[in-house]
Specification:
The chain has a single domain, classed as Ybab, Chain: A, CATH 3.30.1310. It contains nine helices and six strands. Strand 4 and strand 5 form a beta hairpin. The longest helix has 27 residues. It starts with a helix and ends with a helix. InterPro entries: YbaB-like_sf, YbaB/EbfC.
């Protein structure tokens, strides 16, 4: 097998580790609450219409936030599934004048860079078990977050928003849609910081898998890792 064949095989293996959805926006059925989730499904932003009081009661705010978050996740999952089914675009021809084919510099004698990358990918496969255990445990983990004022408390199951509790006395006062949204976002950020700390500790168990995922996200860096260009 040539060095070029090795590189293509490595790229394919690395890309199998990276199947990331895109961010998505969802709304409740009234269109009063809008939630954006990022690529990992985490709540990224909340918008609550300034006339929310005319649209529903204070008791309906928390359920509307959950409904909007669920809508965003459903749209994200649908878009991700469509991306997976869609065939990759054809490779673009190289720019500039054509000339004789250039053989990869690592054809012939094994190149140390290719050997190192092969070892990294092999070790990454060996780490998949530990990573899968972490993913399974993370999906069932519950994390609580509170805003600084204590007016909003949220619970995440995995990284997804599953409960929202809002101080109803505050809601019934002069709380604006923007203020409520800010409190929800703050509570989520606190919970996500706790999750990030746990994930960082786990990543020390899968350093090669993390490296392959980083390389797969940046194909140009992948090539430079092998060729040195």
């Amino acid at each position: 097998m040539s060095g070029l064949d090795d590189l293509r095989r490595l790229q394919s293996a690395a890309q199998s580790f990276v199947r990331e959805p895109r961010s998505a926006i969802g709304m409740d059925e009234t269109g009063t609450v809008e939630v954006r989730v990022d690529e990992t499904g985490r709540l990224d932003a909340v918008e609550i219409h300034r006339d929310w009081r005319r649209r529903f009661s204070p008791e309906a705010v928390a359920p509307a936030v959950l409904a909007a978050a669920g809508d965003a996740l459903a749209k994200q999952a649908a878009a991700w599934a469509e991306d997976v089914r869609r065939p990759p675009p054809p490779a673009r021809p190289a720019a500039g004048p054509t000339g004789p084919a250039v053989r990869p510099r690592f054809d012939g004698a094994p190149d140390p860079r290719l050997h190192d990358l092969l070892r990294t990918v092999t070790e990454a496969f060996a780490e998949i078990g530990a990573y899968a255990e972490h993913v399974q445990a993370s999906a069932q983990r519950t994390t609580t977050g509170r805003s600084h004022s204590g007016r909003v408390t949220i619970t995440l199951t995995g990284s997804h928003l599953t409960t929202v509790e809002i101080d109803e006395r505050w809601l019934r006062s002069e709380a604006s849609g923007r203020q409520v949204a800010d409190e929800i976002e703050a509570a989520c950020r606190q919970a996500y910081r706790a999750i990030a700390a746990d994930d960082e500790a786990t990543s020390t168990r899968t350093p090669h898998l993390d490296e392959v995922r980083r390389l797969a996200r940046d194909p140009e860096n992948f090539i430079r890792r092998v060729t040195g260009d």
